[in-house]
Design brief:
Layout (H helix, E strand, L loop, with lengths): L7 H17 L7 H21 L6 H23 L18 E6 L4 E2 L3 E13 L2 E4 L3 E7 L11 E5 L4 E2 L11 H6 L3 E7 L4 E7 L3 H19 L4 H12 L7 H9 L3 H4 L3 H14 L7 H21 L4 H18 L6 H15 L7 H23 L5 H28 L1 E3 L2 H24 L4 H26 L5 E3 L5 H20 L3 H25 L1 E6 L8 E5 L2 E5 L2 H5 L1 H14 L7 E3 L5 E3 L3 E4 L2 E4 L2 E5 L14 E8 L7 H7 E8 L5 H14 L3 E3 H4 L2 E6 L7
Parallel strand pairs: 5-8, 14-15, 19-20, 20-21, 21-22
Antiparallel strand pairs: 1-3, 1-6, 2-3, 3-4, 3-5, 6-9, 7-8, 10-11, 12-13, 12-23, 13-14, 16-17, 17-18, 18-19
Helix pairs in contact: 1-3, 1-12, 2-3, 5-6, 5-10, 6-16, 7-16, 9-10, 9-11, 9-15, 10-11, 11-12, 12-13, 13-14, 14-15, 14-17, 15-16, 17-18
Amino acid sequence: MFNRHKYPFVRLLIPFGMGIWIGLNRLFSIELFTLSQLAFSFVLLAIVSAIWLKSYRWRWFFGLTISLSLIFGGMLIVKLQNPLSNPQHLSHQSLSPESQFIARIIEPPQIRELTVKATLELISVKNQDSLKPLSGKFLAYFQRTESMPALAYGDIIAFDKKPEKLQEPSNPGQFDYGDYLANKHIFHQIYLRSDNWFKTGFSKRNPVYSLAFNMRDFLLQRMRENKLAGDEFGVAAAILLGYDESLPAYLRKGYVAAGAMHVLCVSGLHVGIVYLIFSFLLGFLKRQGWQSSLKTILLLGIVWFYALLTGLSPSIQRASLMISFVLIGQLTNRKGFAVNSIAASAFFLLFIRPENLLEIGFQLSYAAVLGIILLQRPIASAIYVKNKYLSRVWDVTAVALAAQLATTPFVLYYFHQFPTYFWLSNLFLVPLSFIIIVCGMGLLMLSFLPLVSGFLGKILSALIFMMNWIIRWIEGLPGSVIQGLYVNAAEFALLLVIVMLLVMLVSTKKLRLIFLLLSLGIVLFASFAWRRYEQTNSTKLVIYDLQKHSVVDFIHGRGHILMTDSITLADDFVKGFHLEGHWVESGLITNPAYFEPYIKSFSTDYLRKRENLISFDGKLLALWQDDGGCDDSLSYRIQIDWMLVSGRKSEKLEKLLNCYDPSLLILDGSVPRYYVKAWKEAALEAGVELYHTSEQGAFIYERQRDFLNRK
């Protein structure tokens, strides 16, 4: 049974996390000074109630005031750490086109085929002869040339182009990259040609970060020198050092499909192994007195340096904090409870960086470890296995089941898929990854011994080759991934409550929780059924906004047909980033049929195309062609609902209006910008309404069909 007195940080974390969530989602607009007053006032009330209201019947007042102070405190921390609160932030400045900027590279640059990507932090801006401070982080893409000077962490550069604000997604269901970067306090981006910038020759480096980055580069080079290359190097770099820039996309996809992506993420297992290795190496220090304190300090420093070396991911931060609590507890002869330690680590991480709450990695990491702690033992004890070897297999499977059950709501909400064989991949990969990590750590620590490190490199390469083969085999099994499992925010919340009730049921054995579980399950399935009904009875036309591509989606119920070309459909990035999110959200298949825009005729039971005219749901869409697509000698104009202009079509609105009478002229994202201006000016002069997807987002026409009169 849950004893709340044993878990003080759980009781503190809930209202504190609630306040952070309210602040991050901007549910209430409260000024900084007012928030400070509210938080301070409730802290004072809590202190006064603890001193003066000692009667048992007033115990609730102290809890209420503490909770309210934590809620307002969470909102206050979000406000204080929001860079947009700084009046010197780039977002609040009106700068002239002649402005010159100075910024510092704050992370190691990533070299790509055509560009070098880096994260920069602004230092100052020069307008005419005045230099004033400027703040704000932004992404920079440097044009990659042979004469380009090398860029490194800490370099200070000057450039003459203002960073542009990140745009909101222009297509329905599209991944919100701007929101993802905003969570990292990045609100702008820029593309710099070789003549837009230069190195100042100065640099400013944090010595600890610089040491970590240099050490990581050194260890990566040692891995390359010790027989690791290709896929094996990419996986080894990700597993051991958290460096995933060399990991091929197809291999990453395979690990996701096998439900084993956590193997590639540096996590608590890695921190635990580092701790055990160095605890053994420092075993000569005595367990009492100053030597015990020295050992604890050294281990804390090693654990956190490894966390810094691997990029300080949420899972690494959690594991490092938990081991830190264990070490400090051993030093002070205090024992803690695992759940309380987890809550304490989450509390401190959110206090330092409240945006962690919205990080997918943060949520998955804590959900997985809580699932293992709370559910693994009940699942394992549900089936008694007499054979000791099979019993160990079942224990590993129970761990995978517990972690997967706890993380399933997050996986469905964020990734819309479910890895069917997660239990099988974990059965093989958990012990194999343990051996790989131990072997890899040995390679990194003994890299100064050529014979030993060379031998370990060969073993490590063979082990990773075996692991990759297992991943590809599992990915190739029938039904390895169930895709298209969309859940909205309300359903996600319901799933979380259901999982928490399951945890309470197995821990308290209170049968009345079963009725509540069944009730919530009925509500959840009713939501699924209603959304399916709406999808089945809807008709929609979507003209997506894609640069250099033209895609029109004709949706009828849960079926759809695209008008596009084979090159666009073969582009995995275009499909995955821009299109598939909407398809999954609408319950559509992700490999639809398509027809080319210039095919003369095409027809289905709900769509018909003849020449450049398309009839769909009683509406008429015309495709503008350079030759007009019609005989302009006709004595009448064809009335159409939409005229679509796509590709490199120069402005010929006068000729178009001789043939057609459109209600709306639509320019999609494939029309070059230097043509768009002419089209807009001509439309304004002719009094024709114009819609440009690059400025207004994807064009969407939608109609809900009558249930009694469906066609």
